[in-house]
Amino acid sequence: MERQTSMEKGLLNKSLSIRERERKFRNEDVFLETGLSRKSPRELIKKAQDDDGECRVTASVFLSTFVAVSGSFCSGCGAGFSSGAQSGITKDLSLSVAEYSMFGSILTLGGLIGAIFSGKVADVLGRKRMMLFCEAFCVTGWLAIALAKDALWLDCGRLLLGIGIGLFSYVIPVYVAEIAPKHVRGSFVFANQLMQNCGIALFFIIGNFVPWRLLAIVGFVPCVLHVSCIFFIPESPRWLAKKGRDKDCRTALQCLRGPDVDISREANTIRDTIEMSEVDGETRMSELFRRRYAYPLFIGVGLMFLQQLSGSAGVTYYASSLFQKGGFPSAVGTSVIATMMVPKAMLGTIIVDKLGRRTLLMASCAAMGLSALLLSVSYGFQSFGILPDLTPIFTCIGVLGHTVTFALGMGGLPWIIMAEIFPMNVKVSAGTLVTVTNWLFGWIVTYTFNFMLEWNASGMFFIFSMVSAFSIVFVYFLVPETKGRSLEEIQALFSNSVQ
Q1: 252 against 11, higher pLDDT
Q2: Which of the residues 248, 252, 442, 488 has the least number of beta carbons within 10 Å of its own beta carbon?
Q3: For residue 447, how many other CB atoms are within 10 A of its CB?
């Protein structure tokens, strides 16, 4: 009798154990549907393609994205300032070409300094607090420029402004990519470029009528407004998950996806992806060049290198000089650019998730190359005295075409791709390296631009056109399409390509 009772208890315990195990695995199937711990990268890709749980775009996502990319508007104001203020500053402070070239290019030097620390600061402070940190530099920089009495104060203010913009250039696309649903992520991150173009356009227009000191005060105002809005947006759920703050991660994700949405699957997918990416711990800069990270790193660095060597920053910073050299009224030219930049960037924001990254990148590079070639021909004709009446027209079309088509694709898409392709454990070091590459070559181009313009404008733009042509080849053969994929799926795709 006792033996029978013992056997019944054993069978009962075994039955309960089986039920508990089945319940456990059934719950895990619900909450860890795309967990990386049990699925290969290939399986994850298939699951992510079938997962529509992240596809809801809420008012919170719109608001958070708008507030974040408002920092890019501040960056655009800084980039557009040097073109509209050039004549006033050189006259009032008696600056030479070399001194003004230093003033214009020191923004990118400051951006380089900010880029060096951008990834680490964003990792330590978080995305929201880093935006506040950026604005501290921008506000101080604008005030120093507005009150400058000599070139030293002017350069110090511009340097501080550049540091803030350099930090912004990393954190804004990363934050937006981490909060946006996958089917609109490209458009939302591209809004970064849209707002930057709005800032440039504003300063191109009002720079023709407003004294440069007042123009600096105008740049100060949106920075203050941006600071007040940052407090109303949630932190990045992926950063919170990386820091082990699972409860805060779920709260932020619930805020972004809506109160009636079950965010368990997405929250646990994020958690599992981060756990898998951090198995080997945080990756140092020296470890980036291992085979597993070589492909995405080459894409990120290559796109930033080609973006800057296309001459985009020089054309934007010194548009007035280009129009004057070509015999076209600079006030009219910069106003025409300003009216075209925003609609073109809006078009890019709309079509980036329809056409895809690759198509838009190649189209942008092709148009930039043709525009640079037209400028090369225009300045070449001018130097030989051929068709002098057509030089101003060619100059206007070339500068306008280069600036607008850059805004359409090559301006914003490398930042989108940078924010998408790196896993969390290398996002700090890889993102920093990519951002530093952008600002380093941006500084080289902007500092040498005026000297090269005086030396051989035609040859300079011919080089820019060849760089754009090579960019098309680079994108066609090396850059994968990331449209419509979740961040976890993209990382699994790269892992699968290594395997």
Answers
A1: 252
A2: 248
A3: 18
